Amino acid sequence: MKPPTASLHRCGKNYMSSLPPMPPGGNFPIPAESNDPLLAFQCVPAIRPYLAEDTSAAVLIDSAIVYYEIANARTIYLDSGPVSEDELEVNINLDGNTLGTATIPLNATAYEIPFSLQGIQPQTSPYNLSCEATYNSMGQTPQAFSATASLYVLPNPPSGAVTKMDYRSGALLARPATGGSGNFEPVFPIGFYTQFDGHLSTDLSLVDELKAQGFTIIHPVPTFSNMTAFLDVVDRMQEVGLYLMYDMRLTYMNSSSVTEQVNALKHRPNLLLWYTADEPDGTSDPLSATINAYDLIHDLDGYHPVSLVLNCQDYYWTNYTAGADIVMQDTYMIGNNVSFSSEWDTVCTPDYGDCGCDNCVSIPAGDSQAVPPNSTLPPGPVPANSGIGSYFNIADRVSSFKNRLEVMGWQRTKAVWTVPQAFGESQYWTRLPTGEEWVVQSIMGINHGALGVVPWVDPTSDDIKASASAFAKSLPNITPFLFDAQSALSRTNYVVGGIDVATWTNGLRTLVLAANTNYVNETFSWNEIGRTGVGLTVVFRSGSLETTSDGFTLGPVSSGALVLSG
Question: Does pTM surpass 0.85?
Answer without folding.
Answer: yes
